[in-house]
Design goal:
0% strand; 162 residues; globular
Length: 162
């Protein structure tokens, strides 16, 4: 069991009693294990991920807290940015989801990123502040919030601000 779920066990009658009989904790992963956690799902699903993206994600992990859910969300967003895995997942896709600033991209990816970014609506561009691994979730959430009214209008034909 991941340590961040221990408190939630109390919400289920009887679970806390079972939990304490045989506790199993997932230990902090070392660098090799983190590499496996990042790369193996991509390989098993027929996708590709660059080693430099893997290294950057490992480098960006914050010590002291469970980062697997954040990495999982970032990888999911990177996969979407890489045309649902049709492209090899790389640093440019990490930047596209708010994980790293454009000035840290390899030179060959900077122009492509800037062209992509210039095509975004101003309200979506504003979601890209302080790019880093910790803010990938915030960036995604802010983009969804900014797109909510348009999505609702498309689905219902009505504005929710009537």
């Amino acid at each position: 069991m991941r340590s961040d779920y221990i408190g939630q066990c109390a919400a289920f009658r009887g679970l806390t009693g079972v939990y304490w009989v045989l506790p199993v904790f997932v230990p902090r992963l070392n660098r090799t294990q983190l590499q496996q956690v990042i790369e193996e799902p991509a390989v098993l699903s027929g996708n590709q991920i660059t080693r430099r993206l893997t290294e950057r994600l490992i480098h960006d992990l914050t010590e002291g807290v469970d980062q697997l859910p954040i990495v999982q969300h970032a990888l999911n967003q990177i996969w979407h940015a890489a045309d649902n895995g049709k492209e090899e997942m790389d640093l440019i896709h990490y930047a596209m989801v708010g994980g790293m600033p454009v000035n840290e991209l390899p030179d060959e990816q900077v122009e492509r990123f800037r062209n992509w970014f210039e095509g975004l609506p101003p309200d979506i561009k504003a979601c890209y502040h302080e790019p880093n691994l910790q803010n990938v979730l915030d960036t995604h959430t802010n983009k969804l919030y900014e797109q909510a009214e348009e999505y609702y209008l498309q689905k219902t034909g009505e504005s929710y601000f009537r």
